[in-house]
Amino acid sequence: LLWLLTSRGRLNQTALALADAVPMAAMAVAIGVSGYVGWDQESQRYGVTVAAMMLSMARVLVVPSTWRRTLVLSLLVSLGPLTAALLRTLDPMPGIDASARGPLVVACLWGSMSVALSALGSKIIFGLRREIREARELGQYTLGEKLGEGGMGAVYLAKHRMLRRPTAVKLLPPDKAGQTAIDRFEREVQTTATLRHPNTVSIFDYGRSPDGIFYYAMEYLEGVDLATLVEKEGPQPERRVAHILRQVCGSLAEAHARGLIHRDIKPANIILAEQGGEPDFVKVVDFGLVKDLSTPSDLTRDDAISGTPAYLAPECVTEPELVGPASDIYALGAVGYFLLTGTHVFPGKTVVEVVGHHLNTTPEPPSERLGRNVDARLEATILACLAKRPEMRPESARALREMLGAESAGS
């Protein structure tokens, strides 16, 4: 009962204190009475001390408590068998010539040991529980289950201490917190926080814990990423594909207008959630590889290849310094191809093979890959996004959104 009350937290502190102390006092009385009444049985004379010890130790394991409180309550319980022995010393049971000296000595020695061990155990366990609780608290957030992990850290489900709303918290552990990693992490937060489009994940907070863990809090998206969606449901209906791509275009259009290139558009970074009762609401996440065209920085070296191979535009490999909005459009075209067909544009056994296809191979039309007719406009739009040369692709995310909108106007 005590474990249920304390673990579920249904009572306030005063009620919990009473629920802890009153039963322990009642059990101390019951143990004392049992020893006094059953004095004619040797097992009772000594067994009540064992019962008191077990009760004290069991409480330590079940009830979170300070060592001082445990000391007082364990001492109270140990008085049960001690009082029974003292009373039988003063009032021997008729017809029983057993001395009370042995049970009295046992009650004193083993009772004292029980009190000391209980207090020590409570101090250790309570301290460990507090350390674990503090380790799972970051500022105003209490961490829960892990939602995922990537190169820039792990993401946990958390709750704000006051608002109690579910939140996703991304951590940069100390072992990864070199200066470059910290700068990248801060840049991801600052960049994403400037974006206000409803299809871009929202940032709530940023901070650093006393033990050196950098973190930021963002909205918790209770939904499914596109990679999982296709894995579970296979190729998606054409209208749904166009609907999803249009929303991603909205997010990218704002980012591109601010001179920000995502550089890692892929199914795993696009979440489908329900927002305001509207299903299939897209959220673009993970701006960890974003490139700011307006601010030269060593954090996004022009000669570095960044992104996921299956969604990597050719210029990301041949001319990384030319990576721009068209590179995100290429990746989004690859996402559309994946949604429509359930397969990557260019399957391959190795990264080198996949990248080689991106550089040199003409994509197979989705209709041929599926072996059935596909809406001609949607297919043409996706293939236009996958053009090898950036200038041959839709000129902007906004233009691509208009193409997709016109294509699905009858939906």
Short description:
The chain has helices at residues 2-8, 13-37, 42-62, 67-90, 101-135, 179-193, 226-233, 238-257, 314-318, 325-341, 351-360, 366-370, 376-385, 397-407, and strands at residues 137-138, 141-150, 153-160, 166-172, 203-208, 214-219, 223-225, 260-261, 270-275, 278-284, 291-292. With 411 residues, the chain is an alpha+beta fold. The longest helix is centred in the first third of the chain and has 35 residues, at 101-135.
Q: Major beta sheet, specifics?
A: 6 strands, antiparallel
Low-pLDDT runs = 297-304, 407-411
Q: Tell me roughly what share of residues is in helical segments.
A: 40-55%
Structural class: alpha+beta
Helix and strand sequence: HHHHHEEEEHEEEHHEEEEHHHHHH
Walkthrough of the structure:
The protein has 411 residues and is α+β, with helices and mostly antiparallel strands. It has 14 helices and 11 strands. It has helices at 2-8, 13-37, 42-62, 67-90, 101-135, 179-193, 226-233, 238-257, 314-318, 325-341, 351-360, 366-370, 376-385, 397-407; strands at residues 137-138, 141-150, 153-160, 166-172, 203-208, 214-219, 223-225, 260-261, 270-275, 278-284, 291-292. The strands form 3 sheets. Strands 1-2-3-4-6-5 form a 6-stranded antiparallel β-sheet. Helix 2 (13-37) packs antiparallel against helix 3 (42-62), helix 3 runs parallel beside helix 5 and helix 4 (67-90) runs antiparallel to helix 5. The chain is elongated and about 110 Å long. It starts with a helix and ends with a helix. The model is unreliable at 297-304 and 407-411 (pLDDT under 50).
